[in-house]
């Protein structure tokens, strides 16, 4: 359903009926009479772009509504939302243990009859125990928590980080947040202090970064990833972007690294992470490590920036002591896939305590992250262990999701290989593929005639013809004269992939 | 637990051990070596103030932790968080029907055995039905929804508004949000376009408004409420503040009205609302009606701004057609009290569709409000009706909470009457009282000597002596040379009130 196209408010309708007497003059002035015409909107908001939920997504939702209302005029019978990593909108089932505990937190009276829970509904004792522990901490999931997140949940996250990295973590350095997006917004809000503040952002990137920098009227300093190396991070590209921005007078304060990467889940090697930390140490850049895909890795190994930083601080005393690192994680991705719950956290390493105070004040204005989302963060970082009653089912579900994601990624990759003018890097993880498309000159002309970027034109035609919604590469950034689109590999089955294959052949034929 | 005082990060600890060799020089430069020293933090963040969760709240939490750890050295045995409207942290129990439905949404497998739910756990058929309806809409509470909120939930909110006001409401004009705070932030972000943009804000106010305007580097244009008229809205005060700001060149774009009011729940009369709408129509101000306390009314009647606007649009054709109104509501307050779930909505009336598009884009960057919170909004606006199986219990719980709030408000009010130098307006609603305190000259001197505002000094002493945490009036704004504090009346029992009475007598005696 579209909320942004056309339909006027009741108030406007009232005035429309007046306007119908002398429509032309009044219509032209009607916008001016309002206090907030488009030209008065915050220019930073106006210039922000966010393609993941832009025009294509709105149109796809319109198609979906038409189909549910019985519209038979469309050339497809379902809409496939491959534009956004929204696992549970598609095939992915929530993990049973997580949802059992959350149901108990929402209705603690269920805890009064654990035997019934077990015999009738399959709850195990560890789910009951966990709910009781969490309730003791938060009192009620309907109460505000500490603005930084419930202390015991932060303690649990710290323990997880310690076990993952082999280095200590402090609950006081952790901020729970409403999904990683909210954490990124907080960090950028605090660290950008003028239109001259710059942040290095990988291209292609997740558009949250560019959009948030637009809102803050700060500079995005792009550095390009290496497509031919499966979208790896190119240290030279970072250095040259940085030097160029500095030469232009930009006060570059921070570097964002998405590791594993969005779009392809490429994991940085220990050496690559060291190179980024070298730049950070030498150039005094705050590192924002977006590590929300840390479990979505098909090949290679995830190494956290925190771990690598601590190793280097031990190996080379002095050099890295003052590197400031913020690393983010989320319940939205991975095998958890609970994005609707808006849970996440960031860890601060090496930040000035006076700055941490400012971050605390900033987040306190919004009071606290959703408490049930905080509890889900706790469950994610502290799942059932081997030997605990819920472990076998948890493990089976978790592995099943992982295998399914990998299989679908490969199926999509194989399909792209079969398509003329489409090239795709081998999937390494995350939830996305980001193929290059090479379009015929006539298609590019047609796009320009329609006043569209060529990749946008292609994606729009794909949606209209097949109901498959993907995002044009321009929404993430791409090198000049290249075209891409991003698709998730979350949708079940392969029939929708065949729709793309068929459309693509027809499109290429039409414009050859 | 404190997260902002002192404790260094592990990274800093590493460097501390190095620093211990030559501590003085290195300590003084250690901040400078970091990229983000306090002076580099966004100045808008630095200047923002948010007292509700400030120093006093942090200290109160420290006391709470000490008490739970068995510390016997404090002169009190419990901390009373009267600083924040957090009902379920204190005595208020969640409404059974709401939580039953939420538990089913979190674990839909429970729905497979409705008979067991009924016999063992007291779920009624309407709870089961509602969960099924909501699940059909959102698919999974773990999936992202439409950025504006799930369409069917918005339809339910629109129906509620229509029934409340007697005028149509359109789901497309509604935006669900993560608590009203998030909605206010969205609205101010979109409408403030320069440091010269101004917003009229009532004083005393909820500090969300001043803090958010600070973050946006926009102007708060204060207008004072009339304490002697139970903190009523004074139209002349609005006009004179507006004229003064305009004379200074401020581009005043909007007026915030908190109705019923925070702190005292004073409800605006139909005439007062008309006066505000007159100013809005004449001066072209966008009205932000913060109506989160609409059910917390002990005396008088709540009239929504939307209703009054529609009445006036019918009564006086033309004059009010282009008034832009945004009204907010929330699951956090009222008898629902589910602030930890971060649910709320705002309705836009008369906004330019092109501006609505910008609002949509802005909220889409954070993807969507928490889905379980959206479902709770639906339950709040569409509770069990008379004749439905869950209605009797719902009604009993709802009335019980309302009565309890009123009784505690009166008890606190009576206690204030007994205290020398304390004057308090009769409670009319909301969750707060905001008494004036008149302190002896010696107390004011002592405050200055301690480098504290006098009301802050008083509240700090109160906390140290009694464990009762309230917020100094300066956190909300108060007329020059007046002192206040804000306390909720949510805490159970009256023993804590007696702690205040006793402290106050001793404090007055000490500084007489």
From TrEMBL, chains A, B:
Cofactor(s) this protein requires: pyridoxal 5'-phosphate
Classification via Gene3D superfamilies: 1.10.287.1970, Aspartate Aminotransferase, domain 1, Type I PLP-dependent aspartate aminotransferase-like (Major domain)
Record's keyword annotation contains Transferase: yes
Alphabetically ordered keywords of this record: Aminotransferase, Pyridoxal phosphate, Transferase
InterPro entries: ALAT1/2-like, Aminotransferase_I/II_large, PyrdxlP-dep_Trfase, PyrdxlP-dep_Trfase_major, PyrdxlP-dep_Trfase_small
Entry superkingdom: Eukaryota
Keyword Transferase: yes
Swiss-Prot/TrEMBL GO biological process terms: L-alanine catabolic process
GO MF annotations in UniProt: pyridoxal phosphate binding; transaminase activity
Domain Aminotransferase class I/classII large, first and last residues per copy: 127-494
Self-association state and partner proteins as the record states: Homodimer.
Family: Belongs to the class-I pyridoxal-phosphate-dependent aminotransferase family. Alanine aminotransferase subfamily.
Protein name (database record): Glutamate pyruvate transaminase
